Amino acid sequence: MALAAASASASASASASASASASASASASVAAASVPLAAAGRALNLAPCRLRGLEHDALCGVLRRPLDPARPDGTQIDLHVAVLPALARQKQPDPIFFFAGGPGQSAIGLAGTVDRLLSRLGARRDIVLIDQRGTGHSAPLKCDTPSPADGLARALDRARLFAAMDACRVALQKLPWGDLRMFTTAIAMADADAVRAALGAQRINLVGISYGTRAALEYLRAYPQHVRRVVIDGVAPPDMVLPLSSDIDGRAALAAAFRDCAAEARCAAAHPALAATWERLLSSLPRPVDVDDPFSGRALHVTLTRDAVDDLVHPALYTPVIGALLPEAIEQAAAGRFGALFALGSSSGVSGAELTEGQHFSVVCAEDVPRLPPLPGDAVAGGAQGLYRGVCARWPRGAVPAGFYTIPASRSPVLLMSGGLDPVTPPPHARRVAHALGALARTVEVANSGHNVMGLACMRDGVFRFVDADADSAALATDLSCADKVPRPPAFMPPLPARAASAANDPRAFDDDAPASAARGAQATRTTNP
User: Fold this and answer.
1) What is the Cα 410 distance to its own chain's centre?
2) What does the pLDDT look like over 284-300, one tens digit per residue?
3) Distance CA 3, CA 101 (A)
């Protein structure tokens, strides 16, 4: 669950106004904002800084926090915070707190993407990015970054992956902040509220994407008095049991892709029995295959398993424009040509360099895996359940507050957004959460979009109007009907037409059905007369 889809969808129009004059205005805002924010923050001293992807200065600082909240005088960690200052001189007092996905993404590392996604909101409101504990530079729980070849090997061999994660766990536990029980969502949201207090903000607006929606819901549950508006995109509620729902929702998204192919004339003609082709592919596994490494081009001889094929297909479903390639890739794989499937799986999703694995498993092993149903008898789980059961078997588990899995009625307006084709946080999760939140919750579904819809231009505009509206009633009445007009990309067709055709207005039309002798003569003419 990450920001890849929203990042890919963000259009250049969002930054068209960020010209040299806007950059100068931003720099002036930084200079003006740094003093009052530092003064109000007391323990959070902010200073101008440069962040990757930003065209203007930000304000950066560090807030000291206890690793274990029950031992405030014990080991301390540095919580890294960045503020993207509002451009307006007379800014609004309620900043935007952005929560990243994963779990395991660095919010500060996404500064450029967030700045583009929330550009209109950033004109009048500060945008606050916190590297959640365990991510970015905040007591990072980062495993070794494998080479592309080794990463591929781990993806194809669960035993190798489990060994790597075990080695990572042992190494992380030797760090000064190596108590892996202290990185749960609830503790992280206590950090976020400490940042709010340090900045002197009485009320804040929450924007969360993917796992960040769980973080936002937990903040709303624990600190409702400090929340003005909430926007959550790709809703991952605390009780969803991520590994189980990932398997179920992923299968449903793939089945929908097969149905859509059957309903599209060109796709149905090219792949007349795609679902059956997929089952035939799975039934042939495990099997040895020869394939070129999608990163190095080096020839590989590997054993391909069902789990490995699922792992290659699943990320492509996050983004419909990439998922449009799946029918052709599956058809080729069933015929023994796996290059397209490997390339597709390797080009999608969030890379290990962007995801802090230690924080990821510290969250999921504590909050989701204990709620997995027991396996019957000697059954062995596959899919995401098998992955997380294997890694979490020896991973320390943090305590989860008693109320963590509850979603009380909200005092503040909440906008819940979903993509109808999302393989990991589809609309049913948002609908269920909205029902629990009550009358101040509103859902919007983009039927033909995937994981995260805020990158769509009309959704960004809707988010701005929702947050910026003065009255709660006006926020809830925001027009988001543009969601119904987003088309689904057609299935990819290889650029190999069966025959050429003349233009309708060509007076010298040609015919591909010309006698073979004429074709040979034409070929001879081309050959002898270059």
Assistant:
1) 25
2) 999 999 988 887 788 88
3) 6
The one-letter code for the residue type at 454 is M
Write out the DSSP string of 65-121: EESSTT-TTS-EEEEEEEEE--SSSS--SSPEEEE--TTTB-TGGGHHHHHHHTTTG
User: Beta strand pairing status for 58-66 and 76-84?
Assistant: antiparallel
What is the band of 504 on the pLDDT scale with cuts at 50, 70, 90? Answer: confident
Calpha distance 208→186 (Å, rounded)? 15
Q: Quick one: pLDDT band at residue 18, thresholds 50, 70, 90? A: very low
What does the DSSP assignment read for 364-412?
Answer: HHHHTGGGSPPPPTT----HHHHHHHHHHTSS------TTTT--PPPSS
C-alpha to C-alpha distance for 325 and 260, rounded to whole angstroms: 13
Helix (H, G, I), strand (E, B), or coil: what is residue 452?
Answer: coil
Give the DSSP per-residue string, 193-233: HHHHHHHT-SSEEEEEETHHHHHHHHHHHH-GGGEEEEEEE
Q: Is the pLDDT of residue 38 over 60?
A: no
> 341 is written with which tokens?
């499937």
Please give the pLDDT value at position 447.
95
H helix intervals, 291-372: 306-313, 320-323, 326-334, 339-346, 357-367
Residues 6+ apart with CB under 8 A from 332: 338, 339, 340, 341
Structure confidence at residue 43 as a pLDDT band (50, 70, 90): confident
Q: Tokens 């993917």 belong to which residue?
A: 210
454 three-state secondary structure: coil
The DSSP 8-state label assigned to residue 264 in this structure reads S
How far is residue 104's CA from residue 513's CA, in Å, rounded to a whole number?
59
Candidates 217, 227, 3; CA nearest to 103 is: 3
Total Cβ atoms within 10 A of residue 393: 11
Q: From the CA atom positions of the chain, what is the Rg in Å?
A: 26
* Three-class secondary structure of residue 356 per DSSP: coil
- Give the pLDDT score at 511: 53
- Quick: pLDDT tens for 333-384: 999 999 999 888 876 544 444 789 999 999 999 999 999 999 886 667 789 9
Cα separation, 309 vs 332, in Å, equals 13
Supply 471's token pair.
């009255």
35-49, 147-161, 504-518 — which is least confidently predicted? 504-518
Q: Which pLDDT does position 12 carry in this prediction? A: 29
Contacts of 112 (CB under 8 A, 6+ apart): 51, 52, 53, 54
Give the global pTM.
0.86
Cis peptide before 286 (omega within 30 of 0): yes
Average of per-residue pLDDT across 460-465: 96
